[in-house]
Amino acid sequence: MRTKLNYGLVGGGLDAFIGTVHRIGADFDRIAKLTAGCFSSREEKNRACREFYELDESRVYSSYEEMAEKESRREDGIDFVTIAAPNKIHYKVAKTFLEHGIHVYCEKPLCFEVAEAEELKKIAEEKGLLFGVNYSYSGNNMVKEARELILSGHIGEVIDVNAEYLQEWLIDDIGAGDQTMNKLSVWRKDPGVAGISNCVGDIGTHIENTVAYMTGLKVKRVAAKLDYFGQPLDLNANILVEFDNGAHGVFCSSQVCVGHMNGLVVRIFGTKGAIEWQQENPNILYVTLKGQATQIYNRGMAYVSARSAELNRIPSGHPEGLFAAFANMYKVWTGAVLKKVNGEELSGYDYDFPSIDAGIEGVKFVHACVESSQKDATWVEL
Ligand SMILES: NC(=O)c1ccc[n+]([C@@H]2O[C@H](COP(=O)([O-])OP(=O)(O)OC[C@H]3O[C@@H](n4cnc5c(N)ncnc54)[C@H](O)[C@@H]3O)[C@@H](O)[C@H]2O)c1
Question: Lowest CB count within 10 Å: 59, 239, 259, 365, which one?
């Protein structure tokens, strides 16, 4: 029986944003070891990664195609690949690794087109491979607690959702501000690399997924207005949504809201109460039952659900944040891959990672928002 896994990284060079968080998150529980990579399309960046990660020279590749080919032929080849490169190459990289029989864990948004996303699902199913999409906020302990409470009926039937993800970091794109600080924004603003949306694709999809994860509801249709402020892609979006249970909600996604950094806030309203979670204060959950004072649930306390307790890492009061959320994503994901490579059946919480279906919903959501906005905010089905 295997107890450890090998994994490879595509993207995630030393100067990259999220690849580093993946590596640290995956390392928390020491189940998956980084053993191979194609960290950059540039030779010198790849070499720097090899040294930093202390990898075998033969396992740092100049292209992801070569990596998939060679790793799939090795006895000790990688069990899964994490894709932490810009959106443009997600589909091609994921398809290549799936075709070589390697499980895939891909960053969001999954890919550009719905047909591509569905094709990836088909290949994964045909090959019996797992496919995870890194909607990382669902790894937060108190997001899991919110899901447990909502799905158990604690706040009754969901009747309304009010959620936002507000950032200010692209405010200088409006007008002639100083854009030198915005290294991260370079590819995000390029439709050829980011896809048909910047703001909705980058952070609106996090709202969509976090709400879906907490409530179990799917967005059925949207009426959206995206603001471009003269840029090729959107910087701000106000989205009216309708869920599959008939409830409505509002999603606000913005990169130009001064004073906000990573302000993902999700408020779920039910017939018996309400739940609120804030990404910048992630260790607590506000729970209000009708007619009662608001309760503050703290991560790690005796009253939280068994699921939340199981994924707790340090005592309450010591803040857990983004790295711990990624660690939980990897704990669940690597647990599932381990069962798969050992030929065991998966069930229940083994599947508590965002699946390819969640990735497909995200791609549909982006397309529906862009189309709705082009049609002056008329309703568009996903
Ligand atoms: N889940 C989250 O919370 C979260 C947060 C940030 C970014 N993301 C997603 O992660 C992805 C990467 O975003 P980022 O901010 O880290 O970008 P980044 O620009 O900081 O890093 C991208 C990395 O990919 C590498 N790369 C580019 N082309 C490559 C190729 N052909 N082969 C191998 N490597 C290549 C670059 O060298 C770089 O190291 C995006 O899809 C983004 O949407 C997700």
Answer: 259
